[in-house]
Design brief:
Length: 233
C-alpha cells in the first residue's frame, strides 16, 4: 500500500472511536449504497461484533470478495451473514479493483486500527474521489500540471523504459485509488511506493482535460504523444 500521511484537519469530525454504531446509510432505488466513510464504519462494526470468529479479528481480501459477492463471510467454521448495510459496505470495499480495501488495509488485512487510521486520512479514505457529504482535504492541493507530469514521466520511464508508447487510463486510476496498478504483461500488481507519484495520478484523474482529449485517450489509453504534449496550467 502506498504511504499516506494522517491529516487530522481532514478527519471526519463526527467520528467517535469509542462507538460502534451502524452508519447512516440510505437506500437508492431500494438498495443501500455506501460512501467510503459509511463502508469503513460498517466494516469496523462487523469486525467488532465478530472478532472471535475472524482470524486475529481482521478481514482479508477473500473475506471482502465473499461478502460482496454472496452476502456472507466464512469464519472459524461458521457462516457469518451480512446485513444489507454490511453487504453494501463490502461491495464498496471491493469496488474499483478493491481500491478502498487496499487504501484502508495494512499488510493486505483490514483491522479496526487500520480503519480508524484511514478515517483520519482523507487520502486513504477517499483516494481521488471528492465526496459531496464527507469531510475531505484535496491530496493534490499545491500540485499543478507540470509537477504532476514530471513525477509521472519519471515513474513511467523507470517502470516501462524511456521508449514507452502509451499508458492505460485504467492504470492511472488504479495508481490514484489503490496506490498500485495491475501489470497485464507480468500478471501481477505493482505497488507504487512514492506518494508523489500517487498524488500526481490523483491530479491527472481529476484534471484529465489537461491532456489532449482526442486520440488514444478516448479509447482508454494516453499515448506518449498526448502525454508529452500535456497542456500546462
Amino acid at each position: 500500500m502506498a504511504t499516506v500521511t494522517a491529516n487530522a484537519a481532514g478527519a471526519h469530525r463526527k467520528f467517535d472511536p469509542t462507538q460502534y454504531n451502524e452508519s447512516e446509510m440510505s437506500k437508492q432505488n431500494g438498495k443501500y449504497s455506501a460512501s467510503d466513510y459509511q463502508a469503513a464504519l460498517e466494516a469496523r462494526k462487523f469486525m467488532k461484533d465478530n472478532e472471535k470468529n475472524l482470524p486475529d479479528g481482521k478481514l482479508n481480501y477473500q473475506n471482502i470478495w465473499e461478502g460482496a459477492s454472496s452476502g456472507n463471510v466464512g469464519g472459524n467454521g461458521k457462516v457469518l451473514n451480512l446485513t444489507e448495510k454490511q453487504k453494501a459496505a463490502f461491495e464498496k470495499l471491493a469496488a474499483d479493483d478493491f481500491a478502498l480495501f487496499h487504501r484502508l488495509s495494512e499488510n493486505n488485512q483490514l483491522s479496526i486500527p487500520s480503519i480508524e487510521k484511514g478515517i483520519k486520512d482523507p487520502k486513504a479514505l477517499h483516494g481521488s474521489r471528492k465526496p459531496e457529504n464527507d469531510d475531505y482535504t484535496d491530496p493534490t492541493k499545491g500540485l499543478n500540471g507540470p509537477d504532476s507530469k514530471k513525477a509521472l514521466s519519471s515513474y513511467f520511464n523507470q517502470q516501462f523504459g524511456d521508449d514507452w508508447k502509451q499508458v492505460s487510463t485504467r492504470n492511472i486510476s488504479q495508481i490514484a485509488n489503490n496506490g498500485r496498478y495491475y501489470d497485464d504483461e507480468k500478471k501481477n500488481w505493482v505497488t507504487v511506493d512514492d506518494p508523489k507519484v500517487v498524488d500526481a495520478a490523483v491530479w491527472l484523474v481529476n484534471n484529465s482535460g489537461e491532456v489532449d482529449k482526442g486520440g488514444a485517450n478516448s479509447l482508454g489509453w494516453i499515448s506518449r504523444s498526448e502525454f508529452d504534449n500535456w497542456n500546462d496550467v
